[in-house]
Amino acid sequence: MLAYLDEILEPADAGAIEEKIKESEFATGLMHRIRDVTRKLRLAAPKVEGPGMGLDANTVAEYLDNTLPSERVPDFERVCLESDVHLAEVAASHQILTLVLGEPAEVHPDSRQKMYRLLAAQAASAALKEGANGQRARLDAPPGRPPRKRPEVPEYLRESTTPMPIWRWAAAAVLLVIIGGLAVLAIGPQRIRTLLATAPKEGNPPEQAAPGSPDPAAPTEPALPLAGDANTQGDPQRQPNGDAVQNANDADGTDLRVPADATKADAAPARNGNSDMTNASDPSPIAPLPPSDVSIPTDNAPSKNTGNDPGSGDNTTIAADGSASDVPPENGDPQGIGRFFSEKDVLLATDAAGQEWRRLPARALLFPGQRLLALPTYRPSIDFSVGARLELLGDSLVELLVPDPDGVPGLGVIHGRAVLMTTANPDTRLRLRLGESEGIISFGHAASTLAIDVRTIHAEGADPETDPGLLAVDLVAVTGDVSWQPDPTAEPTLLRAPARWDGSAAAAGQPETIEAPPAWITRGELTFRENGANLFVEQNLPTDRPVSLSLRELAESRREEVRSLAARSLALIGEFGPFVSVLSDRNQKSAWRYEIDNLRQAMWRSQQTAAQVREAFQHQRGPDDGPALFRMLWGYNEQQIADGATGRLLELLDHDDLDYRVLAIWNLRRITGLNLPYYPDHSADERRRHIQRWRDKLQTGAPAAAAG
After folding, report:
1. Per-residue pLDDT tens over the stretch 335-375
2. How far apart are CA 626 and CA 397, in angstroms?
3. Residue 34 and which of 63, 103, 327, 707 are 20 to 30 A apart at CA?
4. Of 468, 708, 434, 455, nearest to 609 (Cα)?
5. Which run of H or of E encompasses 111?
6. In this structure, what are the phi and psi dihedrals at residue 429, rounded to the nearest 5 degrees?
7. Number of helices and strands (H, E) in the chain?
8. What's the CATH number of domain 335-521, 1.10.530.10, 2.40.10.10, 1.10.1670.10, 2.60.120.1440?
9. Which residues contact 415 (CB under 8 A, 6 or more apart)?
10. CB atoms within 10 A of CB 45
11. pLDDT band at 444 (very low <50, low <70, confident <90, very high)
12. If you ran DSSP here, which 8-state letter would residue 607 be given?
């Protein structure tokens, strides 16, 4: 009843307790009494010590831990029923323990890493201090707290009582002179002389001259020529004034200025009909302008050819995200085919070698050959450059394929569920690989949506290392029209929503109309605990380190829901050690059923994954117990049940190891369809009472319904 009031029972167990309380007037009254006594503010507490005590703290602890001997339990409960003080003590202690174990304190990974570095930092600091004093660093000395030094005011905070010395003023003046000289060098002496020579005289403002007429404000003597210019007379384009060169440009605004180190061959051709920018009497090239006026294109700035040089053209390329780039792909580098935009959801991708998983940062560009993995409880989405959007559900693995000669990118769904839709673009096409089948998906409308489900159908009781199972593929048209064409010469299969089509290799039927799309297509609401674990993992999974390291740390969290999510995530990347340990953890009993289901799904994905699961059991439980526990994950078929599998499972309900009992009751409930009470984590005496009820029920002929 205490577990029911504190809401820590499984839904089925809580429902059974609730029915019993409603049927019993005594139980209903006791429930209300427990609630009343725990809310009384002036209720006294049991004495901590003294003669003649009915209960002490150790007795309460043993009762709450289910370790109190069975012969003492009736006396203990009788005292609680007779005394409000003792009843409130037990109920309040149970409630406090539930809160503490359910929401424990959490150590942030950054704090954990900081604690790891404390000893090394302290040793390094001590070595530096001793080295500065000319002493040998004694790192092997026993650690001890150094004496605290008296705090002193830093020198830069102390008030100065002496004026600044003269040499500091002199140094500041010299520094200013040096900065001025550097500025002159940066501008260039030639440019300074040009500006001085062409500047208008004081009191004579410049007048606007007509095109082709001499400038009345021009000096009577020629200005000093620029470096490298042998003849500047008679050529308006050769005048040292930078504005004259700008005026010589075409109407299209093309800048004819070239860098100072440009050669004659690099100079742009003239736009006035001449073959180059040289004077008829002087073959010297155009004088270079100072670097401050030169516009030099960089590798990061887009550029265009003017179309006058041989082979000119617009070199601007459009990347997968729609941005322009002037640098075409070289050396066969792959082009991005999509982008991951979500900042909250978690999406993993393999590194360049394809052997290490890392979390993708938001707005990351995606390339062919990458494998993408969505962790449980997350639904990340990516946008393809062709105008399609992919939303992955948790526990899903896909691969990005190289575009075909027509530029259509590809997507291979290895396992899991995904939703494909257009981004308001009709006639969008995408290559799709589903197991051994591959074809083209075409969206007929701007609002077309396709759901994909790829899973493995397995046989109960079969060895997953030798039986690969059957791959099942479902394509569901949620909205609009979607066509599937496995071969360019074949007739496409049209799916008009709502419709479902079996896309597995063994199926050859036509799409069937369904009443409604599957419920998993819509994003379901997470529970409070799932949402908390989801947020915690998202905030503590960095992008700059391997995911496996971060998930191992999260698998040691004190929060049950975080440990469960981290273990499920590690199983997706092939690390099953924390997953197997869950079955032996009493604090994670609420997650046992879901962990077993997820472990079986991982086991049946491939024969290689099944071998990894078996090796994880052997590593955790040894060469004898490991394979036996792994065998219990297979389940049992009708023939194996007839050969006595049920009797062996009944015996394992009283096994000394918790993981045996957990897997045994899980299999028994699947085989028989019964939901009789049994708790693997309870005491041996309580387990035996429940086991006897199971034996009596099975001997009377309980239905044997092997789960598929």
Report:
1. 789 999 887 889 999 865 667 899 999 999 999 999 999 99
2. 28
3. 103
4. 468
5. helix 109-116
6. -120, 150
7. 21, 19
8. 2.60.120.1440
9. 395, 396, 397, 454, 455, 456, 605
10. 10
11. confident
12. H
Q: Residue 498: is the preceding peptide bond cis (ω within 30°)? A: yes
Give the pair of three-digit tokens for residue 523. Answer: 């994003």
Q: Which amino acid is at 90?
A: V
Mean pLDDT to the nearest integer, 304-309: 36
For 245, residues 6+ apart whose C-beta sits below 8 A from its C-beta are 237, 239, 256, 257, 286, 289
Query: Which DSSP letter does residue 402 get?
Result: P
pLDDT > 60? residue 137: no
Q: What single-letter DSSP state applies at residue 576?
A: -
What is the DSSP pairing of strand 357-359 with strand 364-366? unpaired
Is the pLDDT reported for residue 701 higher than 90?
A: no
Q: Rounded CA gap, 603 and 618, in Å?
A: 15
The CA distance from 251 to 163, in Å, is 64
Q: In angstroms, what CA-CA distances link 113 with 6, 116, 118, 510?
A: 36, 5, 9, 57
Domain ranges (residues) in the chain? 2-102, 216-292, 335-521, 528-699
User: Is residue 464 scored above 80 in pLDDT?
Assistant: yes
Assess contact for 319 and 335: CB atoms under 8 A. yes
Query: Looking up tokens 């309580």, which residue turns up?
Result: 686
The helix/strand/coil state of 36 is helix
Q: What is the predicted pLDDT for the residue at 657?
A: 94
Give the pLDDT score at 149: 55
121: tokens are 């930092």
CA distance 705 to 644: 15
Say if CB 345 and CB 381 are below 8 A apart: yes
Distance CA 221, CA 78 (A): 122
550, 540 in Cβ contact below 8 A? yes
Contact 324, 317 (CB under 8 A): yes
Report how far residue 257's alpha carbon sits from residue 269's, in angstroms, rounded to the nearest whole number: 11
Is the pLDDT assigned to residue 497 strictly greater than 50? yes
Nearest to 534 by CA among 559, 558, 509, 514: 559
Cβ atoms within 10 Å, residue 579: 26
DSSP SS3 for 197: helix
Residue 231 has pLDDT above 80, yes or no: no
For residue 226, the model assigns a pLDDT of 38
> Among 191-200, 447-456, 638-647, 685-694, whose mean pLDDT is lowest?
191-200
CA nearest neighbour of 704 among 661, 644, 641:
641
CA separation for the pair 606, 397 (Å, rounded): 13
Q: Distance of CA 610 to CAs 466, 552, 575, 601, 613, Å?
A: 9, 21, 12, 10, 5
Hey, what are 668's tokens? 């028994």
Residues 227 and 190: beta-carbon distance below 8 Å:
yes
DSSP 266: G
H or E segment to which residue 600 belongs:
helix 592-603
Question: Do residues 174 and 203 make contact, with C-beta atoms less than 8 angstroms apart?
Answer: no
**pLDDT above 90 for 380:** yes
Query: End-to-end distance of the chain based on CA atoms, in angstroms?
Result: 35
What integer pLDDT is reported at residue 190 of this predicted model?
57
Least confident among 294-308, 504-518, 519-533: 294-308
According to DSSP, the residues that pair with 470 across neighbouring strands are 457
Q: Does position 506 have pLDDT exceeding 60, yes or no?
A: no
CA distance 329 to 535: 39
Sign of the four-CA dihedral 35, 41, 43, 47: positive
CA separation for the pair 699, 283 (Å, rounded): 114
pTM here is 0.55
pLDDT digits (tens, 9 = 90+) for 108-124: 677 767 776 777 777 77
